[in-house]
From TrEMBL:
<feature type="signal peptide">
    <location>
        <begin position="1"/>
        <end position="23"/>
    </location>
</feature>
<dbReference type="InterPro" id="IPR050883">
    <property type="entry name" value="PNGase"/>
</dbReference>
<dbReference type="InterPro" id="IPR005887">
    <property type="entry name" value="GH92_a_mannosidase_put"/>
</dbReference>
<dbReference type="InterPro" id="IPR014718">
    <property type="entry name" value="GH-type_carb-bd"/>
</dbReference>
<feature type="domain" description="Glycosyl hydrolase family 92 N-terminal">
    <location>
        <begin position="36"/>
        <end position="288"/>
    </location>
</feature>
<dbReference type="InterPro" id="IPR012939">
    <property type="entry name" value="Glyco_hydro_92"/>
</dbReference>
<feature type="domain" description="Glycosyl hydrolase family 92">
    <location>
        <begin position="295"/>
        <end position="756"/>
    </location>
</feature>
<keyword id="KW-0732">Signal</keyword>
<dbReference type="GO" id="GO:0005975">
    <property type="term" value="P:carbohydrate metabolic process"/>
</dbReference>
<dbReference type="GO" id="GO:0005829">
    <property type="term" value="C:cytosol"/>
</dbReference>
<dbReference type="InterPro" id="IPR041371">
    <property type="entry name" value="GH92_N"/>
</dbReference>
<dbReference type="Pfam" id="PF17678">
    <property type="entry name" value="Glyco_hydro_92N"/>
</dbReference>
<protein>
    <submittedName>
        <fullName>Putative alpha-1,2-mannosidase</fullName>
    </submittedName>
</protein>
<dbReference type="InterPro" id="IPR008928">
    <property type="entry name" value="6-hairpin_glycosidase_sf"/>
</dbReference>
<dbReference type="GO" id="GO:0000224">
    <property type="term" value="F:peptide-N4-(N-acetyl-beta-glucosaminyl)asparagine amidase activity"/>
</dbReference>
<dbReference type="GO" id="GO:0006516">
    <property type="term" value="P:glycoprotein catabolic process"/>
</dbReference>
<dbReference type="GO" id="GO:0030246">
    <property type="term" value="F:carbohydrate binding"/>
</dbReference>
Amino acid sequence: MSHQFRCAATALAALAFATTPLAAQETGGTPYAAADPFVGTGGEGHTFPGAVAPFGMVQLSPDTDTGCLIRECYGHAAGYRYDDPTIQGFSMTHFSGAGHSDLGDFLMMPVAGDTVVLEPGDAKQPGSGYRSRFDHASETAQPGYYAVTLADSGVRAEMTAGTRVGVQRYAFPAGKAAHLLLDLRSSLYNYPGKILWSTVRLRPDGTITGMRETRGWAPGRKLYFAIRPSAPLTGHAFLNREEQVPYKGFQGPSRGADDAAQLHGTALVARLDFGVLDRPLEVKVAISSVDEDGAVANLDSEVGGFDTVRTTTRKAWEQALGAVEVDAPAPMRKTFYSALYHTLVAPSVLSDADGRYRGPDDQVHQAKGFTFHSTFSLWDTFRAEHPLLLLVQPEQRNADFVNSLIASQQASPFGILPVWQFQGRETWTMIGYHAVPVIADAYLKGVRGFDPAKALDAMTASARYAPYGGLGDYMKLGYVPIDREPEAASKTVEYAYDDWTIARMARALGKSDVAAEFEKRAGNWRNSFDAKTGFLRARKTDGSFRVPFDPTAINYGSDYTEGNAWQYSWFVPQDQAAMFKLLGGDAAAVKKLDAMFEFDNSKVDYSHAEDIAGLIGQYIHGNEPSHHVAYLYSYAGQPWRTQERLKQIVESQYKPTPDGLSGNDDLGQMSAWLVFTSLGFYPVAPGSNEYVIGRPFVSRAALNLPNGRRFTVVADGLSDANHYVGRVTLNGKPLERSFLRHEELMTGGELRFTMQAIPNKSWGTSQAARPYSMSTAR
């Protein structure tokens, strides 16, 4: 999302800046060189370092541990964890920063020598299986490329990926036989019974194909593969390990013939032999949600071997990352471009090269005129990730997202939009119907290429589906009652916000009856706000607030979703002015905001809550309900306090290191927050067509917008000492308000900050200078 404005007064300066690429002025090289996929692979970031194209179907990455129990799997949600000592293999699918574990499909591992062990072994016992030790000094990760030396076998492993293919290249030690192990048992969050069925077969042309169906986070998920090695097979074995026996090295088949052309079962392993090779082995793999033939067609759709695919994907990343040019010191540039990189990994392509894909009804559908995408972590990404993609990706890509959401709703057995979907399957994870603000925000910001009437119908169908998450009671009572539905306080305010975005889109479409219905519902947040305590609270069916009440309490399935009253009491992005009024006015709101950030947590224990990370008092940056809160001082006429809090957050929550994210990246949301905040503004209320101005963290930036225009941000005098905004101009004219309009961004132009060491307590203070609120909208 983003917009811009240009005027004659600054035309010459803007032209001079535009014709001198920032890359030539940068510290730290090109955007591509500055992006580091290792950022977030340690700590609680849950990112992966492997190869992926922008929004690619394939995420080819190492898995360091797949045999974890559910609590242990949280830290291995992306398959790879930076502090692990071994690599089990390389699989084709991964989440980037999710808070739940799944995928890790079709794990492959090169084996050198005469002995091929079929079990992964114990990471604590080197040589006990096919997993291998490795050293970070041998690792390289760039957008679209990953490499590592497997210490135990001496194999140099390289990975690259196109949109629908992954290519592995293995250099085996001289004189040693080359083998490749395909373990169809392996999966992230791999528990007994997860693999419902799998098949593998060798086709006459040497292509290996197969599939598996799993019951993991998403039930009944089917995925197919096609593998084409660059060298002919000298032998193979397809083995079914359902009956485990003592086993050391390859000693013949177990419930499968050594020369079998195909095999099926629930515990399959394939050994592929290539003999002694005189050059590296390249293995090209494609996947499909449809069928084996779809995987083969995807394999053929991207021509060339490893180097060709790597070059094509590198160019795609250079173009994608070049949407924003930034001038900043090397550590900040690395943090910024690593964040921008992570925002461009998902939603991922799911439709095959011929447009077919498997939908939420488990049926095959045909995408017509768009590319179907999946992996929608909407509770997270509606906030800043999708708004950012409106600014840095072509309109067609964003239209594809919307068309994918609508197509999913039409194929849904329940007739509602996705909640948390991946590979076409619904997980029902998290709350709200947050596909709604994604669609509304895109439409209100000018994205076309989808049917808006059909979109509005999908939005209202989701908002009126009574069986979902207490919506029946919400529509009847005006709130979700806690004695009938868990996490009721959070659901009430999130539904109200989503309803407001429906009303906004309905108004834009001239649907006044729909707009009136949902404008009324947008005020339902008031029904769960307790003016006496100043907190959002859960109410029972009889109208009483649930007691006892502890605003610091966090328990899953309780009154709030991954948070407590401190975080959720600020979630009224559509009408912060009205909420501040209920709190007692601007001064009371500021006092409460300060109390949140300065809360003493010494007697509060959150060790039981995985997602609670990055605490600054009761502000929890490692999880999404807090992400807009620092910007709320501007709604009370004190933007200088926002500037203070942003400095505090950026300096404590982000680093250009593997442990550089304080919480799960959540499919790009944590990273999108950093990208927006670095530029100096943030979409507090997607659907308002406004961005709240904070303060920049880079000295210069240029947004190369999807419409071909260019919007620049300049921070004169920016330094660690000069962290306050003294003056703001838009296209050379003073900007006295603390928000930027979408159309101003998209028109192109220059936003210039003059930074200083002391706060400017007169800028952005008037009522007219404050960002959008429903009750005070002009």
